[in-house]
Design brief:
- The complex is a heterodimer of chains A (184) and B (74).
- By secondary structure, chain A is mainly α.
- Chain A is 75% helix and 0% strand.
- Chain A has helices at 4-44, 64-97, 103-134, 151-181.
- In chain A, helix 2 (64-97) packs antiparallel against helix 3.
- In chain B, helix 2 crosses helix 3 (29-36).
- Helix content of chain B is 58%, strand content 8%.
- By secondary structure, chain B is mainly α.
- A two-stranded antiparallel sheet of chain B has the order 1-2.
- Classes of the chains: A mainly alpha (184), B mainly alpha (74).
- At the A-B interface, loops of A face helix 3 of B.
């Protein structure tokens, strides 16, 4: 005899997953699109919105080429963020469709974890390149390359490693699950 | 794959369709299709038991071992 209460509860859970995953997928996709636009706005209106991690004195009297170069260099770190967010959006879209426990979901989580892990390094490289670009016209001996690491960056690395480990375990578990599904 | 599934032969002998067998055994048509095509990794004894009961046959009527030539030489 089928227990209708269990079926109703399962249906409620599925609808909740569908709803939450849909919202999260939309938010991640929106952020992935908004990130480069925001960075363009920051570099366009640098007098009002300081680009992160850059010494304030380099941002005075910026030419158009300074802004364009700064924006293009920032696309390196923005690209890592967009890649991670789009992987997350795809992951939530799969959850919304009901594909939750499979290898592909674990791979997408791994991509997001990698983006979190690589983000501090990308930020470091971008910061160095950007400060070099902005100080390229400085007098001899006054050019600079700034590199900075904060506890925030180290925290991101730790989180990235933890997420990577979880994704690795989930991938192997999903592979075992798929193998077991082929036992009828 | 050395294990060959000859379920189709028994289904033809008993003049039964796959859909009917799946419903009688209690597995999905998709799983039965995978079993018929030999794409499964394994069969539970309970599933084998039910199939044999429905088709009135022995497990040997459903599964056949054909060793690979490489295995024979080794």
């Amino acid at each position: 005899m089928i227990d209708t209460n269990d079926n109703a509860e399962d249906e409620r859970r599925r609808r909740r997953i569908h709803r939450v995953a849909g919202v999260m997928s939309f938010c991640c996709a929106f952020l992935a699109i908004a990130l480069p636009i925001c960075m363009a706005l920051i570099w366009g209106y640098v007098e009002y919105m300081l680009p992160p991690r850059l010494p304030a004195h380099l941002l005075e009297n910026m030419s158009v080429w300074d802004r364009i170069g700064g924006f293009l260099l920032s696309l390196f770190v923005v690209g890592v963020g967009v890649w991670g967010l789009s992987s997350l959006a795809t992951l939530f879209a799969r959850f919304r469709r009901g594909d939750i426990f499979d290898v592909r979901a674990a791979v997408l989580l791994r991509r997001f974890a990698l983006s979190v892990l690589v983000l501090p390094l990308a930020g470091l490289i971008t910061e160095g390149l950007t400060t070099a670009w902005l100080s390229r016209d400085a007098a001899p001996g006054e050019g600079m390359v700034a590199l900075s690491l904060s506890s925030h960056d180290l925290f991101l690395c730790v989180i990235g490693v933890l997420l990577l480990t979880i994704a690795w375990i989930l991938r192997d578990a999903a592979a075992i699950n798929e193998e077991n599904r082929l036992i009828v | 794959m050395p294990i060959v599934v000859t379920l189709d032969v028994m289904l033809a002998r008993r003049k039964m369709r796959g859909k009917e067998l799946a419903a009688a055994v209690g597995i999905s048509e998709q799983n039965l299709s995978l079993l018929r095509s030999g794409k499964v990794k394994g069969v539970r004894f309970s599933t084998l038991q039910h199939i044999c009961a429905v088709l009135d046959c022995q497990p040997g009527d459903l599964l056949h071992f054909e060793p690979d030539t490489d295995e024979e030489e080794s």
